[in-house]
Amino acid sequence: MSITVRPVEQGDKQEVISLMYEYIVDFYQRPRPSIDKVHSLFDTLLENQLGIQFIAKQGGKAVGFATLYFTFSTTRADKITVMNDLYVVEEARGAGAAQELFQACETFTKDNGYVCMSWITAADNYRAQRFYEKMGGVRGDWLNYSI
User: Fold this and answer.
1) How does pLDDT run across 5-34, given as a tens digit for each residue?
2) CA atoms 132, 92, 1, 43: torsion sign
3) Are 61 and 53 in contact (CB under 8 A)?
4) How far apart are CA 127 and CA 129, in angstroms?
5) Confidence at residue 126, expressed as pLDDT on a 0 to 100 scale
6) Which strand (E) or helix (H) includes residue 82?
7) What confidence score (pLDDT) does residue 146 get?
8) In degrees rounded to 5, what are phi and psi of residue 73?
9) How far is CA 123 from CA 58, 126, 129, 143, in A?
10) CA-to-CA distance for 5 and 121, rounded, in angstroms?
């Protein structure tokens, strides 16, 4: 069954928000954000000013999403995208959805004049690391911190 990837539309809201909660709470085991915050994030990304989301569908069912945020890099003196999320439900992994989502993000980045796309993944997410290396990603020299 083929995978279709496209930018998220208003009609995708419930499916995407359901995937976002699965990603946040089940996959990354983070506290469940309020529905108001998740709806606000979805609506902000739908405007395509600060970022964009893509949805992957298989047989009419949402099986994954990816989120790109738009920002700048001082060291490159140019605009860049950050792929903050790439998530595919367990039962659809290995079917090409992740590759299609990644390529949609990469294509958007190139087609819209961004100098590069960057991303991070958890240090223990070896499956994702293998996938990103297969897609041509190169591990960077920078360490990631947060506060």
Assistant:
1) 999 999 999 999 999 999 999 999 999 999
2) negative
3) no
4) 5
5) 87
6) strand 78-88
7) 66
8) -120, 120
9) 29, 7, 8, 11
10) 21
Decide if pLDDT at 136 tops 90.
no
Mean pLDDT, residues 101-120: 96
Q: Are 83 and 118 in contact (CB under 8 A)?
A: yes
Of the candidates 14, 103, 109, the one whose C-alpha atom is nearest the C-alpha of residue 68 is 109
Query: What type of residue sits at position 79?
Result: K
Q: How many CB atoms sit inside 10 A of residue 109's CB? A: 21
pLDDT at 106 over 80: yes
Identify residue 29 by its one-letter amino acid code. Q
Contacts of 118 by beta carbon, 8 Å cutoff, 6+ apart: 80, 81, 82, 83, 140
What is the pLDDT at residue 10?
A: 97
pTM exceeds cut of 0.85? yes
Three-state SS string over 119-142 comes to ECCCCCCHHHHHHHHHCCCCCCCC
For 140, phi then psi, to 5°, come to -85, 175
CA dist 9 to 12, 38, 107, 125, Å? 5, 15, 18, 29
